[in-house]
């Protein structure tokens, strides 16, 4: 029997980016969109492309949302995608080859893409993410920036996953605000302890230095500097919200 592949996409008010993502995955046996009760046309865009849409509340827990997708998926293999990612033709070919081989898990190389800028370093440099694996043996942990793991050995596929992460600077701030709120709650739930000085000053300072100097963000010019500052502020807000969550449940 030919192995089957389900693509799982988490969605929330992403109609503007989702169509491009769905157009790149028509090769899959099933495209499953887990919609966090979007108020735009996300669900309609998904259905019109032939995707199966299930509405399920995120509740600030990305791992639980992905696990729901795994439990619901009908295929032998799973490919996780974000609603702003696109599978290139080369990567598509490698994916179809991989699911016909013995069970294994695979990292995909992800390239961040911007309409007017080329960014290759710093906090927005390309990375690799574990996304393709058999359904059996898949596990996801962590409320946000969740960790996907598999019981099968991992290797890397050639070809790129294109990540159209931000349309404008305001969107970076909106995402920063929501993600740091989730991270603050996650830190508090885990009972982790970091001093106020460490979280509010030292860690953000290191975040900037690492993004701009260690990871060579300076090579990306002005945008490299802006994203290094953004990364430092992201780190500051994560610990600020964690401290507020710990002391006052996030209420001033």
Please write out the topology.
Layout: E1 5-11, H1 15-23, E2 30-35, H2 42-48, E3 52-55, H3 62-72, E4 77-82, E5 85-87, H4 89-98, E6 105-112, E7 127-134, E8 138-141, E9 147-150, E10 154-163, H5 169-190, H6 196-214, H7 221-248
Parallel strand pairs: 1-2, 1-4, 2-3, 6-10
Antiparallel strand pairs: 4-7, 5-10, 6-7, 8-9
GO molecular function: transferase activity
Domain Glycosyltransferase 2-like: 6-124
InterPro entries: Glyco_trans_2-like, Nucleotide-diphossugar_trans
Description of the structure:
InterPro entries: Glyco_trans_2-like, Nucleotide-diphossugar_trans. Residues 6-124 form the Glycosyltransferase 2-like domain. Belongs to the glycosyltransferase 2 family. WaaE/KdtX subfamily. Keywords: Transferase. This is Beta-1,4-glucosyltransferase. The protein is α/β, with parallel strands linked by helices and 252 residues long. The protein folds into 2 domains: 5-163, Spore Coat Polysaccharide Biosynthesis Protein SpsA, Chain A (Alpha-Beta Complex); 169-248, no CATH class. The protein has helices spanning 15-23, 42-48, 62-72, 89-98, 169-190, 196-214, 221-248, and strands spanning 5-11, 30-35, 52-55, 77-82, 85-87, 105-112, 127-134, 138-141, 147-150, 154-163. Strands 3-2-1-4-7-6-10-5 form an 8-stranded mixed beta sheet, with helices on both faces. A two-stranded antiparallel ribbon has the order 8-9. A hairpin with a 5-residue loop joins β8 (138-141) and β9. α1 (15-23) runs parallel beside α2 and α6 (196-214) packs antiparallel against α7. The N and C termini lie far apart (59 Å).
